[in-house]
Every structure is written in structure tokens, then in C-alpha cells.
Amino acid sequence: xxxxxxxxxxxxxxxxxxxxxxxxxxxxxxxxxxxxxxxxxxxxxxxxxxxxxxxxxxxxxxxxxxxxxxxxxxxxxxxxxxxxxxxxxxxxxxxxxxxxxxxxxxxxxxxxxxxxxxxxxxxxxxxxxxxxxxxxxxxxxxxxxxxxxxxxxxxxxxxxxxxxxxxxxxxxxxxxxxxxxxxxxxxxxxxxxxxxxxxxxxxxxxxxxxxxxxxxxxxxxxxxxxxxxxxxxxxxxxxxxxxxxxxxxxxxxxxxxxxxxxxxxxxxxxxxxxxxxxxxxxxxxxxxxxxxxxxxxxxxxxxxxxxxxxxxxxxxxxxxxxxxxxxxxxxxxxxxxxxxxxxxxxxxxxxxxxxxxxxxxxxxxxxxxxxxxxxxxxxxxxxxxxxxxxxxxx
Amino acid sequence: xxxxxxxxxxxxxxxxxxxxxxxxxxxxxxxxxxxxxxxxxxxxxxxxxxxxxxxxxxxxxxxxxxxxxxxxxxxxxxxxxxxxxxxxxxxxxxxxxxxxxxxxxxxxxxxxxxxxxxxxxxxxxxxxxxxxxxxxxxxxxxxxxxxxxxxxxxxxxxxxxxxxxxxxxxxxxxxxxxxxxxxxxxxxxxxxxxxxxxxxxxxxxxxxxxxxxxxxxxxxxxxxxxxxxxxxxxxxxxxxxxxxxxxxxxxxxxxxxxxxxxxxxxxxxxxxxxxxxxxxxxxxxxxxxxxxxxxxxxxxxxxxxxxxxxxxxxxxxxxxxxxxxxxxxxxxxxxxxxxxxxxxxxxxxxxxxxxxxxxxxxxxxxxxxxxxxxxxxxx
Lengths: 394, 379
Known about the structure:
The complex is a heterodimer of chains A (394) and B (379). With 394 residues, chain A is mainly α. Chain A has helices spanning 15-38, 40-71, 80-87, 90-102, 104-107, 113-117, 120-125, 131-162, 166-193, 206-231, 241-272, 275-283, 289-307, 317-343, 351-374, 386-390. In chain A, helix 8 packs antiparallel against helix 9, helix 10 (206-231) runs antiparallel to helix 14 and helix 13 (289-307) packs antiparallel against helix 14 (317-343). By secondary structure, chain B is α+β, with helices and mostly antiparallel strands. Chain B has 14 helices and four strands. The model of chain B has no long low-confidence stretch (mean pLDDT 84).
């Protein structure tokens, strides 16, 4: 094979897409503001769902970025810039989360002083679950995430100009440092923002559960973005079906991983049958919430499992595109299923939820477009692994 | 040589690119039954040969699914139909508990049967020979040459044409490969003597090793399986107590539960006078008495208390229980005889509990009344 390869020139995003991004964001924002006025309690809960979803995507991509450096993966180098675009979401997500931080009262039961006074369990938990410490933890998480994101992105972008492999080495070191910190911060983040919406309940596998969804949804959004960019011709013809096959395989693997963890959590609670644990599951199995549980069983595992099972399906672009959108929707449903039943006895789903979904899509598209405009190359041209990545085959 | 049937015509090439071009040409010429050999895997070769994707995945899928279904049905049969048993307060049919087992059996069945299918259906095991083996062609392509072998089965096959065709493609050497005669005569069978004896030998060796590992090796140190513990065994010494005795006497002035000393030892008169049967002859009590009577008393006194057991004539004859003396004796007297023994009859205190003894007394009364009914019974 020839050693020459064509690096596609970076094209700008069409004004149609920009218009769409602004439109969706504007519409979502407008509807969400109306929702805040109509029912601020429910609006804030939805806002929390969207916030954790964006954290999933942003921090999850930082995880995949670190994994690429640590495992020395070659195939993903060519599409790493897409990862990096999503990593640069982290500061934006930080700002978005501030609204949750200032309104802990309407989302978190433990933030009410009267409630804690009459509740022994909440009193016992109060050294951890109190507003001061909650705020401190929020800043610690995002300080660490933004720090690592800044360091790795700086190195990676600088490598484009300098073309020195020392930056790859530096990034590997930073990634090795980041992964354990990622594990701890993401676990506690999920406990704070998702599990503590029902402060009487606890599950030791919860952090892993949220991580499974995070890893799955972030690989899904990368798959979606890469396929869309590939179809629009941004990547030229450098992406082969083997690249997509790997994306599909990771998607498939983490669909299984999510199901494995979700079932492990359920099975232990079901087997032990302790009232202080089961009430959480029972609550999600009655008064209409069982619809969401069924959607998760079939939509988050069985349907994507069988549609990505065969070898051909994993490199079938149409199938992959559809399934990555499907997975993103399911991750939203998953987070919704975690947060909302804790706050509402009866099932709720309506225009308020959909307006916040619109807002989330709008924010994602908008930040993606802005970030995409600012980067110089769509593939990391200075990376020493790039040549091997372009010639990658299974 | 002419008698031997032709298997294929094979050609070697000295360069990968030549091989790939040749494969393209072979495809264009319309040959379908051919194979390519090389010392290492060549990427993209399946595509160049226009091979269809392997069907083995379907085998895995089908056996995986049937493993899941089998595991589900088996557990359903065991837990619901054949041996319903409540475990942990759960219902008999409990899907969540089945899922881990179904998962395991799915993985096991899928992987094992994929390999079995590959070996026995696809590779035709135990067929260990192939016409290509042990030929000059195979020796070359397993070292530093690349080869194509077009089989004689192919519809377009013609020996002269194929040979010329392969030479045109730039082949280094062209071979004619024949079936080995003896190979055709006696095709390898599953019931071949050699194969069966090989199988038997393997079985013996493997089972011997397994036996040794499971029954001996695993019980040698350091695998002690908690046999060696820091505890006092019966009849051993210990350093815990000053006198080094492992077995201890009961604490002075205490009585073990259910082992109250018998106060009327050697004193049947007082026993008959003071002891009263505490049990009421209910059905349950009588059944207990019957069971214990048949176990402990009937070997000598006979099933119906007539002293007619098979011991009669070999031993001081066991007395009948239907004598006037015994019929008029109070419950306490009979209880005393069971507890303390009488003449040759030993004490049964260590074998039969107090409650059971009283139940036996009730049952003896039933036996006695069956032979000598009271007036009230006759009415």
C-alpha cells in the first residue's frame, strides 16, 4: 500500500445546520422557560435529567479519550477529534449545572431542613448530604474534569502544529492519572445528582450503573457524529468499514455491559428482599412507571442487542446511525427513570419533558457547531499513530 | 499413477501481489471450487476470493438460544413441576433467579457446540487426512510460497486447460495432486479399530488423571479442606485446660437437658406407686408408641406382645405381655421395667426417651385390650 494518504480539507458547517442548531436551542429555551413558569418543580427535575445526560456525554468522551491513549488504540485516532469536541462540552455543562446547584430545594428531599429534623435516616446521612458539602463536591468534580480536559485538549491540539510525539506521551500519562479519578468522581457524582433524589435508598452498584450508561451513550454520540460527518463528506473517504465495525462492536459491548449491571442491581435487591431497598424498585413497577421499566428492558437491551448482534450489522452505516440515536434516547429514558419516579408517585410525561429534550438537543448541536468551527483539522494530523489508523483493518 | 483419481491442480507463486492477481483471474475464469494457501493470513483475501461470510455465527446463535430455552424449561420443570420447594420466601416460578443460569447455559452451549460443530461437521473429524497433506506443494506453501489449488470437482475443470491457465498466470510450479489410493479404499470411520483404541486409551488416561486429582491430589497438603483445625477432637489432649484432658466432665451439680437421673433405680414398688403416665393416649401418641414398640420391643416380645418372636427357644423365653400380672400392673411399673430392665432384659433408658417410653406403655395397653377386651369394649 502507498504511504501517501489524502488528509481531507476541513469544511465549514453549512448554514442550514447552524440555523437548525439555533432554532432548536431557541425553541427549547423558550418552551423550557414557559415550563419553569408553569411548573417549576417538574421543570427543575427535568433540567436535572438533561444536565446528567450532558455530563454523561461530556465526561464519557473524556473517558474514551483516556482509554484510547492508555490502550494504544490505533483505529480510533482518526476520529479522535470528534471525541475532543464533546470533551470541550465540560465547561458548558458546568455552567448548566449551576442552576441545579442553586435549586437543590425543589429537587432533593434531603435539602429541606424540616424533613431532615423528623427523619432519623436523613439525620444520619446529613454529614454527607448537606448543601455546603454538596456544593463543594460539585466544584471538586468539575474542577478535576475541566483540568484534565484542558490538559489533554491543549496537548492534542498543539500536536497538530508541532507534530511532536512527546505530546502523545504526555497525554498517556495524564490519562493514566485521570482514569482512577474519573472512577471516583463519576461514582460520587451519580450518587449526588441521581441516587440522592431518593435519599432513603442506597445501592452500592449505582456508580457502575451510571458509568455503564455514560460509556454507552458517549460512544453512541461519537458514532452518530462520525457517521453524520462521514455522510456529509467531512472525512473524505478515509474512514473504512472496519473503523465503523469497531464503533459498532463497542456499542454492542456496552449494551451488554449496561444490561449486566442493571440486572445485577435488580437481582440482588430482589433476592435479599429488604424493605429499605425494594421500595425503590417497587415504586418503578407501579402506577404507570412500569411502562418506563419495560421500555428499558426491551429498548435498552433486547432490541439493540439483537439488531447489533450479527457481524454485518456492526459495519452497516444505516443500522449504526439508527441504533446510536436509539441508544441516546434510551439513555435519556434511563436517567428519567432514575430521577422522576422519586419525585412523582404517578407517571408523568408531557410537553414539559419534550421541551427539555429539545433544549438538550439544541445545546448539544449548538456547542458542537461552535466547537467544530474553531478547530483547524478534523483529524489529528500530528499524531504519530495517524498513518496506522488510516491503514487500519481488522 | 493413472489409476489414482485426481484431487486438484495446484500452483505456487513467489509473490503476494501475483497471488492476488491470480485469484482475481481465477474468479474471472469462473472457477468456484478452489482454495488458496499461504504461510500467514493475508488481509482481504476472503474478499478477493469472493467468499461468503461464514455461517458458523448462525450455529452459535441457534445453540445459544436453545441453551437459554433448555435452561429455562429445565429450571421450570424442577422448581414448579417436579420438586416445588419454597426457597427464600419466593414463588416457585421466579424468572429473575433463572436468568443467571440461563445466561451461563447460553454461553456454555453456544461455545461448546460451536466447537463441536466446527470439528465434526466442518472439519469432518475424525478424518485426519487430506490429499494435500504430505505433498511437495504443501511443503512449499507452508514455508515461503503462496499457492492456489483448483479442485477437480469444479464444473469447468479440465486438466490440460487448468495447467496452462495457471502457468499463464505466472505460476512458479504446477502440481497434480492425487488422492492416496489406500485413503480411498478404507475411508476413515468412527468405528475404526485404531480410532476406537485411541479413544479408549485417552478415556482411561484422562479419567485416571481426573480420579487422581479429585480424590488424592486435592487432599494432599496444602489442600486440607479445613480438615486440620484448631479444635479439640474426642479422645485427644489439649493445652487449653490445665489437666490436658480434651474431654470434660459436666459442671458439678448440673444436669444435661433431657437427662434427669432416674430416682427409682432398683425400686419397682415405689415406681409403680408414684409414677403416673403424663401422656394422654391420642392417635399421635399411640402411633409414636407403636413405632417405638416395633423398633425396640418386638424383637423379643413379638409384634403383638405374645412373646412369640424368633428368639423363642434360643434364649430364656421372652415373657408374654398379656399375663394377668402385667395387665394388672400400673403404668408406672411397666415404665420402670423399660427404664431399669428386669431379669435378662437390659435398661432401654439410653435408647428410648422418657416421652417415648410412656407412649410405648400406652401402646402395650392397646395390645393387651385387643386380646383381653374390657366389658365396655365388647358392648
